[in-house]
Specification:
Order of helices and strands: EHHHHHEHEEEEHEHEEH
Largest sheet: 6 strands, parallel
Structural class: alpha/beta
CATH class of the largest domain: Alpha Beta
Strand content: 15-25%
Distance between the termini: 6 Å
Bound molecules: adenosine-5-diphosphoribose
Helix content: 25-40%
CATH topology of the largest domain: Rossmann fold
CATH architecture of the largest domain: 3-Layer(aba) Sandwich
Number of helices: 9
Amino acid sequence: MSSDKIVILTGAGISAESGLGTFRDEGGLWAQHRIEDVATPEGFHRNPDLVHAFYNARRAQAAEAEPNAAHHALARLEREHPGEVLVVTQNVDGLHEKAGSRNVLHMHGFLAGALCASCDHRWPAPLEMSKSDTCPACGHAATRPDIVWFGEMPYYMDEIWSHLASADTFVAIGTSGEVYPAAAFVQEADRGGAHTIELNLAPSSRVSDFAETCFGPASQIVPEWVAQELSR
Ligand code: APR
């Protein structure tokens, strides 16, 4: 059995079969809402009620959602693979953790987290957040979802770049490869000598950067890939 270090990037597509909308597919979240209104600091400053309503709805939906076979397969890989398995997710739902994954980095934050824009304190978000909520640490009414918006720096980037440089295998699952820095991860992993794999419903815009591809629904192709990886 190989003890390769495996770094996995996941996007909204891995949670699609758990009933959570993707962003850029037909009828996706960015077809229903303007990014500049609900996913930028300027939009939050302009209309905090609209932004809280957007994330309150997604938080309630994510709380009801269950991991699908793809999430469970990645948790199995972490349990059974002798080498390190790291999931770097762009997703803000908690489905990797609900499926049992422990080694997970949320580079775009997560719906279950609240952040104080005044003192940077973080705490578990209530299901419904509002602009009148006050920070439990500093008392200011400056609370926001702990989500990384467009124009803000994703979390854990130094750590992620270092994991990519030392990965033996890099897998991208359910992501369109439209948003940086995540879209550049495959090239960084390739530069470090990793074998690169895209598991997606359809070819992403970075498909030509991958050494290996497999297309189909994540709930089908991810368990198949994990079984293959564990039998190597
Ligand atoms: N199985 C596998 N892949 C799927 C499935 C499925 N069932 N359904 C959709 N996909 C794929 C689509 O083909 C697409 O390539 O998932 C991808 C979803 O792409 P996006 O909607 O762009 O989502 P994502 O790549 O995660 O977006 C990245 O953009 O808006 C920001 O912060 C947001 O984290 C998000 C980032």
